[in-house]
Write a structure and sequence with these properties.
seven-stranded mixed beta sheet, 16 strands, Aspartate Aminotransferase, domain 2, 2 domains, Aspartate Aminotransferase, domain 1, EC 2.6.1.19, 13 helices, alpha/beta
């Protein structure tokens, strides 16, 4: 063993020891190493090992790691000033970003934009605005949904473990409505019949579990993220949207993971031809720099009185600079079109794996937001969480960053940067197949 390799291994062991000593065990790490640098779709750890990134920092790196234009924008902003606090002294980049987001978001109505730091903050503020505007208290989210880890957003989130267990009591007046899961529809029921059934279940839920006149907003992920990349039918989304309109309920689209070219549009709502009253954004908007926002109807955002919205770092200059660069990159590099093509390639590759391996029960996706579901038996569709975890682990050992998801922890989700090269994509799937085969043998 060379001296340099031995030194690197010792450095890693030291870092892991320090991490164990000072970081709470509730903070999970998918892979036991530390990043040293990252560019595009490649991450290099402190030992010099390269990883192809199919995780994208949980969907925040659509334009790739350390895109030169993002780096330049952040550096230039840091040279000018790092922070003044928008409430103390304004800066133009906040205004420009708000203007561009309002222009991009679906909806022919007048819009305003509030900028924040994180996705959970955006959702919290969307809920505040909806309650203030409607004078109602009820908030409806959906089964398997994920909206954050704060008290309100944790309440809205479905998955108890690991996100909610032992952290109650939770916020009141939050209700969970049914959300379609086409792969697990009742046997013998057609797709069309199932979609109509689930929409009717939603309407029944609203009429029985919570009075519609007491509901301020329905909050929906157009494609569920942590829930397992579940893609609903257009008829379901439009049906819920119409119901909200009929009953004076605001429709909030949580586009935190689906936004900014991930599904082949700036926003996944565009696929379903709806105009959300409020739309929450974060993750890939900042390419790794914290920034989030609520985009919505002017009259809804203006209902709050001065001082009722904001925050110390909300819409920070560095976040705004990064976000403006991201919007330029998406347009200049044609990333929406690229995401649609990338998604088709990923779906084709998943289909090939599905033909070879019986454990792959279902493949699905919208644009470049794709996933495969791992099962013990294709007929019973029994989830295989253990095998999924082994695949993720084996992939990491071989140099592929991969994430699981889903209600049962049995979904492999793909959030590779949209700028990934064809060679990197092919190499990543070659590693995935090796990991899959090894995990099956060793289970």
């Amino acid at each position: 063993m060379s001296q340099s390799i031995q030194t690197q291994e010792e450095d890693l062991k030291s870092l892991l020891t320090r991490r164990e000593r000072i970081v709470p065990r509730g903070v999970v790490n998918n892979i036991q190493t530390f990043a040293k640098e990252a560019k595009g779709a490649i991450v290099i750890d402190v030992e010099g090992k390269s990883y192809i990134d199919f995780a994208g920092a949980i969907g925040t790196i659509n334009v790739g790691h350390s895109h030169p234009k993002v780096v330049q924008a952040v550096q230039q902003q840091a040279d000018q000033f790092i922070h003044t606090g928008f409430n103390v002294m304004m800066y133009e980049s906040y205004i420009e970003l708000a203007e561009r987001l309002a222009a991009l978001a679906p909806g022919s109505f007048e819009k305003k934009v509030l900028l924040q730091n994180s996705g959970a903050e955006a959702v919290e503020n969307a809920v505040k605005m909806a309650r203030k505007y409607t004078g109602r208290q009820g908030i409806v989210s959906f089964s398997r949904g994920f909206h954050g880890r704060t008290l309100m957003t944790m309440t809205m989130t479905s998955k108890v473990k690991p996100y909610k267990f032992g952290f109650g009591p939770f916020a009141p007046e939050v209700y969970k409505a049914p959300y379609p899961y086409e792969y697990r529809r009742p046997e013998g029921m057609s797709e069309d019949a199932y979609h109509a059934y689930v929409l009717q279940e939603f309407i029944q839920f609203m009429n029985v579990e919570v009075a519609p006149e007491s509901v301020a907003a329905v909050v929906m992920e157009p494609v569920q993220g942590e829930g397992g990349f579940i893609v609903p039918s257009k008829s379901f989304v439009q049906g819920v949207y119409r119901y909200c309109k009929e009953h004076g309920i605001l429709f909030i689209a949580d586009e935190i993971q689906t936004g900014f070219a991930r599904t082949g549009h700036y926003f996944a709502s565009e696929h379903f031809e709806i105009e959300p009253d409020l739309l929450t954004v974060s993750k890939s908007l900042g390419a790794g720099v914290p920034i989030s926002g609520v985009i919505g109807r002017r009259e809804v955002l203006d209902e709050a009185s001065p001082g009722e919205l904001g925050g110390t770092y909300s819409g920070s200059p560095l976040g705004c600079a990064a976000a403006l660069a991201v919007l330029d990159i998406i347009e200049e590099e044609g990333l929406n079109e690229r995401a649609r093509k990338l998604g088709q390639v990923v779906m084709d590759k998943m289909a090939q794996l599905q033909e070879q391996y019986e454990c792959i029960g279902h493949i699905r996706g919208l644009g470049a937001m794709c996933a495969m579901e791992v099962v013990k038996d294709r007929h019973t569709k029994e989830p295989d969480k253990e095998l999924t975890a082994k695949i993720v682990s084996e992939a990491g050992n071989r140099g592929l960053l991969l994430l699981s998801a889903g209600q049962y922890g049995n979904v492999l989700r793909f959030l590779m940067p949209i700028v990934i090269t064809d060679e990197q994509l092919n190499n990543g799937f070659a590693i995935l197949e090796e990991a899959l085969a090894t995990a099956i043998v060793n289970r």
